[in-house]
Design a protein that fits this description.
single chain; alpha/beta; FAD/NAD(P)-binding domain; four-stranded parallel sheet; 14 helices; globular; binds flavin-adenine dinucleotide; binds 1,4-dihydronicotinamide adenine dinucleotide
Length: 508
């Protein structure tokens, strides 16, 4: 009886704490403190991008130390790990978006935001060129923004390796617009396949959903799509039962190369159970509007070209450099040998420069291009910049104290000398900031049918696990990692809604 009473108390207190926390975060979100204007004599820090790297920097930066200017064509932060769920309507896209204006209005000192694309960085002149690429244009569409310090966090674009037809016919999965396009196309394929008198071969083609790239993006999307088919489409459009088919095409001998062997095997066998076809050792070479041409490696080692018809083609073959990054690299001799992105040192300073830093997917710091890395790099830069500002302030004070010491004598001079010694000690302590060190928390991926795989770091070891419990862990981990309490509530609500009412199959 005492056990039940204690359990009840713990539950009661936990609920109370959760309600209290939510009420406080909602109240705090709606009542940010008054912001003050930045000091024009301070250095101008320009931040390019509003992704994982840049937003993590902004979140942790003491903005009162700089004149901060943010330039990005996307006026929101996107929680990419849940983007594959938006392609089928499991999660609504707005639930994983956080307006940049909302993030910025919670900073102590005002931050200037321009919705624009940086078209060029002039390293010598210390200027970035920004262009308004939105639909509504004013009289001014292009401008220049001078900087003292610059952080490049523009991410990467989709790699196509110059394969003909990819840009024209395939859908990518990087931005909200991509997920919306895929969601629309899935339903378009289904409705067109069920059009009166559609020939059987054409029905098969239209309902063949091909995903190219067996990295985590391709695997997660294939899993989500098969879930959509099993849980909802089959109920509403049962006539597609025999023809709807998901195929994952991968050039390498296996999918998810960054996961341990055991989890690769688990994923492949789980896909088999879910009736998702995996075509490994199959490299796509050409894309037309109705089929892909792929080079398939045969067991004997010979290669054969095969035509694979498709209705929907999703292209997820990794990252490529953005043109603005390529252009910057071409201006810096120390970057001449860089291929995969801006080469940075252990303090994330772009090699060959003094006042440009690189974060996230556009920089090469010997880590995988993941959100985890970008977020840690952004937080590190914030610490570095906060420290640099404190150092500058103490150095100014030291200069003043040294001048004062020269004009004073006796006890006053001793007092000034003591103060100088104190400031020097403070300076040494602050300057002790070490280089960036990435701490890998593990890799997680959803593989469909309420299963996930996880390679998680545990103390000094590693745990590789897959299944339904891992799926619950995946769900709770990503829910807790959502940017804001608002995002968390919306995502939880979307999951509940999809469970009870199914996903929405209407085509917008
Ligand atoms: P991004 O987050 O891509 O942000 C780049 C920013 O720069 C954007 O705001 C963009 O609008 C802006 N920008 C672009 N061009 C310009 C320009 N010319 N001028 C100014 N701004 C510009 N990683 C994980 O660790 N775990 C996951 O579960 C995971 N899931 C993913 C799922 C999907 C579908 C995808 C696509 C990626 C996933 N990733 C995941 C990878 C992760 O999203 C990236 O590594 C991460 O977004 C990189 O952060 P970033 O800040 O470098 O770039
Ligand atoms: P990726 O680079 O991880 O995988 C792309 C795959 O496409 C590779 O396996 C490659 O062999 C294959 N490929 C390339 N060209 C091909 C062709 N012509 N034909 C067939 N296959 C071809 O790319 P992805 O999945 O987009 O991920 C990008 C980054 O984002 C990675 O660093 C990844 O770790 C990260 N990410 C992490 C997630 C997670 O942790 N859950 C989810 C999604 C992305």
């Amino acid at each position: 009886f005492r056990y039940i009473r204690n359990l009840w108390r713990v539950t009661y207190l936990s609920v109370l704490a959760a309600v209290g926390y939510t009420t406080y975060t909602v109240w705090e979100g709606n009542n940010p403190p008054e912001q003050f204007e930045p000091d024009p004599s301070k250095k101008t820090l320009v931040i390019l991008g509003t992704g994982w790297g840049s937003v993590s920097l902004l979140k942790n930066l003491d903005t009162e130390n700089y004149n901060v200017v943010v330039v990005s064509p996307r006026n929101y932060f996107l929680f990419t790990p849940l983007l594959p769920s938006c392609t089928t309507g499991t999660i609504e896209h707005r639930s994983i978006m956080e307006p940049i204006r909302n993030i910025l209005r919670h900073k102590k000192a005002k931050v200037q935001y321009y919705e624009a694309e940086c078209t060029k960085i002039d390293y010598e002149k210390k200027v970035v060129y920004a262009k308004d690429d939105s639909e509504i244009k004013g009289d001014t569409m292009e401008t220049q923004i001078p900087f003292d310090m610059l952080v490049v966090g523009v991410g990467a674009e989709n790699a196509t390796f110059g394969i003909p037809g990819v840009r024209e016919h395939a859908c990518f999965l990087k931005e909200v617009g991509d997920a919306q396009k895929i969601r629309k196309r899935i339903m378009d394929c289904v409705e067109t396949a069920t059009f009166k008198d559609q020939p059987p071969e054409e029905i098969k083609r239209l309902l063949h959903m091909v995903v190219v790239g067996g990295g985590p993006t391709g695997v997660e999307f294939a899993g989500e799509l098969q879930d959509f088919f099993q849980e909802d489409l089959l109920k509403w459009v049962p006539q597609i039962k025999e023809d709807f088919h998901v195929t994952l095409v991968e050039a390498l001998p296996n999918v998810l190369p960054m996961f341990s062997k055991q989890l690769i095997e688990y994923t492949e066998s789980s896909f088999k159970e879910e009736h998702i076809d995996i075509r490994t050792k199959t490299m796509v070479k050409n894309v037309t509007d109705k089929y892909i041409e792929a080079e398939v490696q045969q067991p004997g080692g010979t290669k054969q070209v095969e035509k694979i018809p498709y209705g929907l083609l999703v292209w997820a073959t990794g990252n490529a450099l953005r043109s603005v990054v390529k252009d910057l690299m071409s201006q810096i001799p120390a970057q001449a040998k860089a291929r995969r992105g801006l080469e940075v040192n252990e303090y994330l300073v772009v090699n060959g420069t003094e006042n440009i830093w690189g974060v996230g997917d556009c920089a090469v710091a010997n880590y995988a291009p993941t959100a985890q890395v970008a977020a840690q790099e952004g937080a590190f830069l914030a610490r570095l910049f906060n420290t640099m500002a404190k150092t500058d302030a103490i150095e100014d004070e030291l200069r003043e104290l040294s001048a004062k010491q020269a004009t004073t004598s006796g006890d006053d001079r001793n007092a000034v000398l003591n103060e100088i010694r104190e400031r020097q000690k403070q300076l040494r302590r602050i300057k002790q900031i070490g280089p960036f060190q990435y701490s890998h928390q593990g890799s997680l991926a959803y593989i469909g049918a309420e299963k996930a795989v996880a390679d998680v770091s545990w103390f000094s070891g590693n745990i590789a696990t897959g299944g339904t419990l891992t799926y619950l862990f995946w769900k709770s981990a990503y829910l807790s990692m959502c940017f804001s309490a608002r995002n968390r509530v919306l995502v939880a609500f979307d999951w509940t809604k999809a469970k009870f009412f199914g996903r929405d199959v209407s085509r917008e």
